Amino acid sequence: MASNVSFDVVSEFDRQELVNAIDQVRREVATRFDFKGAKVSVELSDKEIVVVTDSEMRSAAIVDLVASKAIRRGLSLKIFDWGAVEPAGGMTYRQKAVLRQGLPEDVAKKITRLIRDEFPKVHGQIQGDAVRVSGKSKDELQDVIARLREVGDDYPVALQFKNYR
Predict the structure, then answer these.
(1) How far is residue 146 from each of residues 28, 112, 132, 159, measured CA to CA in Å?
(2) Alpha helices in 32-72, H assignment, sequence order
(3) How, if at all, do strands 5-10 and 40-44 pair?
(4) Lowest CB count within 10 Å: 20, 49, 118, 132, which one?
(5) What angle is formed at CA 13 by the lines to CA 88 and CA 77, rounded to 5 degrees?
(6) 3-class secondary structure per residue, 85-152
(7) What whole-number distance in Å separates Cα of residue 102 and Cα of residue 87?
(8) Terminal-residue alpha carbon distance, the chain
(9) Which helix (H) or strand (E) segment is 23 a member of?
(10) Quick one: pLDDT at residue 153?
(11) Which 3 state secondary structure label does DSSP give 79?
């Protein structure tokens, strides 16, 4: 009697790693020569990162710093949705990055369609902001994971695979 095995396709990031990356950015900005005397603030909230600087060039440098620290900490750059640099008054500029977490409905539908078209013995089901993939064979599920990793760059979010049982 074969039992079903399953895993979840999710889009998450480690919040603590992001907090540590932002702290590293703040420390580096405080010690770097090109930021000496500059007005720079990097704030992290639940849903976004807000960068306030005194020039657009420094704002771009902060975005690059955030990206490099995030990569070093194992975070995907797809979690950041950077907005445009906008004047914030008082000779400062603000740039926001919305943090992406969870699979959007259209991406979840594309994943289930891909699974249904290419793997007829495997079933994909949308459950909130994740997709549960189940089947009878572990080998088929590993093939699904391999295929999703191949096409992962086509999606605007980073994919992770959890609860493999």
Answers:
(1) 38, 15, 16, 12
(2) 56-72
(3) unpaired
(4) 118
(5) 55
(6) CEECCCCCEEEEEEECCCCCHHHHHHHHHHHHHHCCCCEEEEECCEEEEEECCHHHHHHHHHHHHHCH
(7) 31
(8) 16
(9) helix 15-31
(10) 83
(11) helix
Residue numbers in the chain where pLDDT is lower than 70: 1-2
Question: What angle in degrees, to the nearest 10, is found between the helix axes of 15-31 and 56-72?
Answer: 130
Amino acid making up residue 21 = A
Q: Residue 144 corresponds to which tokens in the numbers above?
A: 């699904």
Q: Which of 28, 92, 36, 91 is nearest to 62 (CA)?
A: 28
Q: Which two tokens stand for residue 33?
A: 């020569």
Give the DSSP H or E segment for 34: none
* Among candidate residues 137, 122, 164, 120, the one with its CA nearest the CA of residue 2: 137
Tokens 């950077």, residue? 82
Tens of pLDDT, residue by residue over 107-139, are 999 999 999 999 999 999 999 899 999 999 889
Residue keyed to tokens 């405080």: 30
Spacing of C-alpha 78 from chain mean position: 4
For residue range 12-27, what is the model confidence (pLDDT) as tens digits?
999 999 999 999 999 9
